[in-house]
Specification:
Elements (H helix, E strand, L loop, with lengths): L6 E3 L3 H11 L5 H19 L5 E7 L4 E7 L5 E6 L3 H10 L4 E2 L1 E6 L6 E7 L8 E5 L2 E2 L3 H12 L4 E5 L2 E2 L1 H10 L5 E3 L1 E2 L2 E2 L5 E2 L5 H6 L3
Helix pairs in contact: 1-2, 2-3
The structure holds 1-O-pyrophosphono-5-O-phosphono-alpha-D-ribofuranose (PRP) and uracil.
The site of 1-O-pyrophosphono-5-O-phosphono-alpha-D-ribofuranose has 23 residues, from strand 4, strand 6, strand 9, helix 4 and helix 6.
Length: about 210
């Protein structure tokens, strides 16, 4: 593994505005879900910005031409259940041919360790770029576990996409998987004693599904 991959903060005004709407504890379940979906679309635009292109020959109604298309196999979107699913529809609206890998993990509230309960992914992960999706990067136990699982199934080209990151989570993820670049809309102050991001937005999965 070479060096430490980058952390990119997506400072687009629409993303920042929508993140503020999500942080507001008065946001309804319906509003939270809808805005997360919208941010997923905007993050998909940013995280795919440097995908390699190849040239193909096509025929326009006027003449033949050489034109760019995205090289290689379709992307894999890998949401970490449950909250990662909040990004999925928005991202799929921009990359509708993407494959989807579901990674079922929950964070034990006492130990903060990630517990696996489901995994289903395309068999040819080694040939595809995999975007791992989770709004929250707190201790990074979930992100590390998800990337471990995807690597065990062959994934080699991974990117991690979140909404909010804690400095502790970024440091941990980069220490375990230094080649995986991170996209986030914000890096918050710290984790509290319960492993929640401060100031954060609370429990993303509960706010998305109204389960608190
Ligand atoms: C939340 C969140 C991340 C994880 C982040 O999931 O969606 O997956 O916590 O915390 P970490 O970086 O400390 O691992 P949670 O376990 O609450 O499950 P849920 O999405 O089903 O609510
Ligand atoms: N998971 C969440 O949903 N929120 C946090 O602040 C930390 C972990």
């Amino acid at each position: 593994m070479q060096g430490t991959a980058s952390v990119r903060v997506v400072d687009h005004p629409l993303v920042q505005h929508k993140l503020t709407l999500l942080r507001d504890k008065a946001r309804s379940t319906k509003g939270f879900r809808q805005i997360l979906n919208e941010i997923g679309m905007l993050l998909a635009y940013e995280v795919t910005r440097d995908l390699p292109l190849e040239t193909v020959t096509i025929e326009t109604p006027i003449q033949a031409m050489e034109a760019p298309q995205i090289a290689g196999k379709k992307l894999v979107l890998a949401p970490i259940l449950r909250a990662g699913v909040g990004f999925l529809d928005g991202m799929l609206s921009l990359v509708p041919s993407a494959r989807v890998a579901h990674v079922g993990l929950y964070r034990d509230p006492d130990t903060l360790q990630a517990v696996e309960y489901y995994f289903k992914a395309p068999s040819d992960l080694a040939d595809r770029t995999v975007l791992v999706l989770d709004p929250m990067l707190a201790t990074a136990n979930s992100a590390v576990a998800a990337i471990d699982l995807l690597k065990q199934r062959g994934a080699r080209d991974l990117r991690f996409v979140c909404l909010l990151a804690a400095p502790e989570g970024i440091a941990r993820l980069q220490s375990v998987h230094p080649e995986v670049p991170v996209w986030t809309a914000a890096i918050d102050s710290h984790l509290n004693d319960h492993g929640y991001i401060v100031p954060g937005l609370g429990d993303a999965g509960d706010r998305m599904y109204g389960t608190r």
